[in-house]
Specification:
Number of strands: 15
Structural class: alpha/beta
Strand order of the largest sheet: 5-4-3-9-10-13-11-12
Order of helices and strands: HHEEHHEHEHEEEHEHEHHEHEEEHEE
Number of domains: 1
Radius of gyration: 18 Å
CATH class: Alpha Beta
Helix content: 25-40%
CATH topology: Rossmann fold
CATH architecture: 3-Layer(aba) Sandwich
CATH superfamily: Vaccinia Virus protein VP39
Strand content: 15-25%
Length: 296
């Protein structure tokens, strides 16, 4: 069933329309070859960049199957960033967003990833793309206060800050710092956050930055995991709206921001924009993006 769901998603992906045979072959080939590979392989990514792929790397295999796993959100990042902008990647994992943002000439990236294995792959991907001069990688968590916390191991992209005794076994200690202490007075244009339910704590430690009008866009994954910390995603969204952010969705083909109810492409992330007029002008004039053999 899981195999069929994955194949259905791949064949319906916008970048695979009209290319279903090639998409299916990539999927089947990887399912077979990944079981015998002993090291990572390199795949083409976006704007001439590359990614390392190993079995079990969801974001990297998603890039292999589709070109851009989170199509509308990734296209928004690619269309809105410009030379000199700062992109902050909290919960960078292996670096699919870090490499993507860094593919825009002159864009700087601050990437945070506490998991040892994911951090190793993140560093390898930055080095593979020779982006060390513009990408700073931090092996730490981001939260409310300076602290040392326990972090799960062995769960891939869903590793998270330990919430109780059930997560304690096999966990490791990680350093956690507030984003305000880490990058202020830098002014990121876009902050992407994938922290498996720890959003409220990250936001609490970033109040100074998030109150700065220069911060235009947030991209946050809400997947219900906040309940393990007693967090309510609805409350978090209201807090961000009070800071001037508005929930929108992006249509890459038309390069327009729309109400989420009108979105053609579903996303598990929430796109929050502080200045819709500014962002609309940015995406309309953004550079074309090279993905495989096409430009968008």
């Amino acid at each position: 069933m899981r195999f069929l769901r994955a194949l259905k998603f791949i064949l319906r992906h916008p970048l695979n329309r009209g290319h279903s045979v090639g998409a299916m072959l990539r999927f089947l080939m990887w399912q077979m070859t990944s079981r015998i590979l002993t090291k990572a392989v390199v795949i083409d990514y976006v704007n001439g960049t590359r990614l390392l792929v190993e079995r079990g790397m969801t974001s990297a295999t998603g890039a292999l199957y589709t070109g851009l796993l989170e199509y509308s959100d990734m296209m928004f990042v690619l269309h809105v960033l410009r030379e000199g902008d700062l992109f902050v990647d909290i919960g960078a994992n292996i670096g699919s967003y870090t490499v993507l943002a860094g593919s825009i000439p002159g864009v700087r990236v601050e990437a945070f990833e506490p998991d040892q294995d994911a951090h190793r792959c993140l560093v390898d991907n930055v080095m593979l793309n020779r982006a060390e001069d513009r990408v700073v990688v931090h092996r730490m968590g981001v939260g409310r206060i300076n602290s040392v916390m326990h972090f799960t191991r062995g769960h891939g992209q869903v590793n998270h800050v330990v919430a109780g005794p059930q997560d304690q076994v096999g966990s490791v200690e990680i350093l956690v710092k507030p984003l305000d202490d880490l990058i202020w007075p830098s002014q990121p244009i876009v902050i992407k956050m994938d922290v498996e339910g720890y959003e409220s704590e990250v936001i609490a430690g970033a109040r100074r930055i998030l109150s700065d009008p220069a911060v235009k866009c947030l991209l946050i994954e809400f997947n219900g995991s906040g309940t393990r910390y007693g967090q309510d995603e609805g409350v978090i969204l209201e807090e961000l709206k009070a800071l001037g952010f508005r929930v929108l969705a992006y249509s890459p083909e038309d390069r327009v921001l729309v109400d989420p109810s009108r979105a053609v492409h579903r996303s598990k992330n929430q796109l929050l924009v502080r200045d819709a007029d500014w962002a609309s002008k940015r995406v309309r004039s953004g550079p074309r993006v090279r993905i495989r053999d096409r430009e968008i």
